[in-house]
Amino acid sequence: MEFQLLAMNDSVGLLILVVGMAVAVALIALLESKMNAPQPAASVPEERHAPAAAAKAAPAPAPRAPVVETGVPAEVVAAIAAAVACLEGGAATVRGIRRLPRPAGSRRGVWGEAGIAAVTTPFLS
Questions:
Q1: Contact at 8 Å (CB) between 68 and 99?
Q2: pLDDT of residue 7
Q3: For residues 88 and 94, what is the distance between their CA atoms, to the nearest angstrom?
Q4: Residue 105: strand, helix, or coil
Q5: Entry pTM
């Protein structure tokens, strides 16, 4: 008798598992169809009576090229300007690009100094 109860509980558990998985698959399919559905085009109101001032508005001034130190390649300038535009959403303007002077005491650079500090710090304390 005890064995039959266990068998019945196993079949109920299996049934619950299958129904639960079917519900999950149905929900995922529904969400995918909602996300992949084409979006309706936003209606753009037509301006029938445009003011005369808007028609004669002066064009925005073209942005000036950044002041670049000699020796900086144009590709580097373009990459820096693109990174700034990406991070700031186009609200910032690059006005100048220059190289920072290297410290006179080190030929390794900043990353080399950081590596030396990370390796030798345990010995100094």
A1: no
A2: 52
A3: 11
A4: coil
A5: 0.36
